[in-house]
Amino acid sequence: MTSHLFAISVDAADPLRLARFWSGVLGREIVDDPREGVALLPDGDTGFRVRFLPNPDPKTTQNRVHFDLTSGSPQDQRETVARALALGGRHIDIGQGPDDGQVVLADPEGNEFCVIEAGNTFLAGCGPIGAVNCDGTRAVGYFWREALGWPLVWDQDEETAIQSPRGGAKVTWSGPPLMPSDGRDRVHLDVVPSGGDRDAEIDRLLALGATRVGVGRHTADDVVLADPDGTEFCVLSR
């Protein structure tokens, strides 16, 4: 048994407004489901939902998870940046250098993301969301390799990455040192058991090094775990 990456979920003061921003940036369709909440549908068989979940608490620290968006050409990068700015995004400084090819932005609620320069071979063919870029150690990359059953596609200098055998966005970990956490990760992974037995899958994830945090982050029966670095994720029931 493995887990399936169902969604990347984002806490939002105004979920619909944030969904409209990301729908405009990514060109994905918005759905508003009584159970799922406001979400963007996957962009193909290898994709995942992007969900926007209500949380009135303000953002206080840099997110441990962000999107890296790809560019097919320098013009494509400029157009993505311009579209994001027109929709309510803004430029931010997270310590990038003046010669960095990527453009670092924040969405209307301050969630960081990068628009990667054209010609980035590591993200070639991954789709508009080239990577789900996570703050985490090499051990966590190995944890998620086993959790999702995806092979490692990068393992060097404490940095790791995995990708579905079918392609699509990579999930990457940048290695130590880790950023501080304010106790709740506003952007996190949501998984569902691929075999249907959630209790057995939770036991497997705990044996791999996860810890139990609680229940009820989205719905009453969601189980919240943390990876070996303490970054939260949710195991949903389906």
Automatic annotation (TrEMBL):
Pfam families: Glyoxalase_6 (PF18029). Gene3D superfamilies: 2,3-Dihydroxybiphenyl 1,2-Dioxygenase, domain 1 (3.10.180.10). SUPFAM superfamilies: Glyoxalase/Bleomycin resistance protein/Dihydroxybiphenyl dioxygenase. InterPro entries: Glyas_Bleomycin-R_OHBP_Dase, Glyoxalase_6, VOC_core. Residues 125-238 form the VOC domain. Residues 163-184 are annotated as: Disordered. This is VOC family protein. The lineage of its organism: Bacteria, Bacillati, Actinomycetota, Actinomycetes, Micromonosporales.
